[in-house]
Fold this sequence. Notes:
This protein has helices at 7-23, 44-60, 73-85, 97-105, 127-131, 155-161, 173-183, 201-210, 226-241, 248-257, 280-286, 323-335, 337-343, 353-359, 365-377, 392-407, 413-430; strands at residues 34-41, 64-71, 92-95, 134-135, 138-139, 142-143, 146-147, 149-153, 192-194, 270-276, 292-294, 309-310, 313-316. By secondary structure, the protein is of the alpha/beta class.
Amino acid sequence: MNNRITRREFGRLAAAGASIAALGGMISPAEAEARLRLIWWGNPDRDKRTNEVVDLYMKANPGVTVDPETYSWNDYWPKLATQAAGQNLPDVIQMDYRYIFEYARRGQLADLTPLVGKEIDLSDFDANQLESGKVDDKLYGISMGANSMTHVFKPAMLKQLGLELPDATKWTIDDYVAMGKEVKDKLPEGVYFSENMAYREPRLETWVRQRGKALYTAEGKLGYDLEDLTDYFAFWFQMQEDGLTPPADLQAQAVANGKMEETMFVTGHAVFDFIHSNQLVAVQKLVPDEVDITMIPNQKDGKPGQYLKPSMLISMAASAADPAAAAKLMGFFITDESAADILLIERGVTGDASIRQRITEKLSDTEKKIISYLDVVGTHVGELPPPPPKNAGELDRALAPAWESVAFKKVDLKQAAKDYYDNAKTVLDRA
Length: 431
């Protein structure tokens, strides 16, 4: 029998005793009648799990009603911006590392520091993951899991094509292109070697980091040169011209919708695609064949382009009418064992040691692949970059149309790169 009492269990016992002594059984504000709005971006699998946790929470807290809202990534940020402008943000918000500084510094997120140790128990939480939610030394978000960027593929398809992946930590983009050319004529009609990833800002980030640069500097400026962006566009344009990626019109359909179920990989149009490691679970549910992930191929003699980051964070609106109730819901998602049994690592590998230990034996083979992948990536990564500065979200959204002007051959790629780069500097200067 294991009689070890974790720091969390000790804290809960102590808190319970203190509450009984001080309140004499009175109901705390968080347990009183409350109505909370919860918003997240997701996919069918995440939506299902999250709604199950919401139902579980309301069953355990009959005085609380939680109204869930979910959107695709592309729809989520415009929706959240509209709500913020209308001073109508949901109480509990799924937040991304790239946006947290922007929302926090506009005064739209609540500092969670006063709630830690009360409604939110982080006694077993990894300090590094906790740091990723801090802005100006205040806690505005709690990591819901660690992840990293990946290429996703089907092992059976690679075997059928006679392809064998090189060492994940050593393969290069030259290897990637060579593999594509080797199998191009073996692929069924309508299937291409790779998604065209030019429009994906995280993929651009790995590109410039491999060159020893950064997407953004700590001062909120561009951390790469025009030449880097021009080379990036040129690489992916050549991939399209060589028939290794889908034609512009087919690729644009997936970009426009922004839904996982309509990506080139899930719809069967690409052998390789780009995802974050925590998305493997959702992808596997959408694809009948076994899927796996590998590291992003590097440039020749390049520095590590990848890093471990919070897959997403959970934050509270500064306008939340009942901060204690909102914090209690957040704590349920982060540290409750019954919630963890449902969520597992779909949102990334949790930073909570007690929860991670509890769920490991419950993980599927797919989820164990994520753990193994992060073990490998963790030995071949650079440091977590500075968070994107204010207005960086505007640049993320502008990359796809800039690339599509190249893909559809409406604008010369050098001019398109210059237009995007110049605009990016203007947007960041305006911040």
